[in-house]
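This section describes the prediction task in plain terms. A model, or a person checking by hand, is given the sequence of a single protein chain and must write out its three-dimensional structure as a string of tokens. No templates, partner chains or ligands are provided. The sample shown here is typical of the held-out split.
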Amino acid sequence: MELGMIGLGRMGANMTERLVCGDHRVISYDRNAEAIQRVVDIGGVGAHSLSDFVKQLTPPRVIWMMVPSGAPVDQTIEQLLPNLTRGDILIDGGNSKYKDSLRRAETLKAEGIHFVDVGTSGGVWGLELGYCMMIGGEKAIVDSLEPIFKTLAPPDGYLHVGPNGAGHFVKMIHNGIEYGMLQAYGEGFELLKASQFELELGKIAHLWNQGSVVRSWLLELAEHALQKDPKLASIKGYVEDSGLGRWTVEEAIEKGVPAPVLTLSLFARFASRQDDSFAAKVIAALRNEFGGHAVKKG
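The expected answer:
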């Protein structure tokens, strides 16, 4: 099958390689010429402008976007639209907010362009293991794209979850759950590290993956990281968030659904970025004021 790929970052480049290896014809575009050349070197076709990119695709075109969420997606669509024709299909495989996907689907429908939102999980391991894909859009259009999904996903690794917006909604909740799981593992291993015992954390991670109820792929990755660097001395405890965890918490508030674990895991990420918490200073000062408790001087 022929398709175009816009965005050749870590995910987009690996997905393109998997598609090329699956005998699809992939025309690729990225603002970085070196990224395009890497795709050409593995058998893909490069384009050095969006207009050239669109011209190389046979109508009805299938275009997969792997660009950062928010304005970059809207800008890409705006630049593409004058060159598209009715019946073309635009796929957003990035981490877009599902409400943005609903809006984009309506805007593109008025232009005769089909929109499909694909929540994509798999990270840097997706090239080898495949990508889990949560797909939103018109059923007939999604069905027509099945050869692409079959190549990108492991067996049973893709699902048409509902209409436009549903794919990115399910991916948002997926990432919210991920936040909670990561926080639980992080706290657990910190307790192990703080114990009076000389524990080998990498070996414990390996042990827990042998039939334990807490076994998971994330725990396999923890084992891998702890074996390389048992004390994680080379890593600073600063944890970013991609936005999906925030959106999950916002959705919980909007729908009145209690989600304390997911919410606290998001706040723990915020705390990781503070070298010197002002809130902690206030608490220390108050304890000193009301109880004469000692404070550490800065």
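For orientation: The first strand starts at residue 2 and ends at 6.
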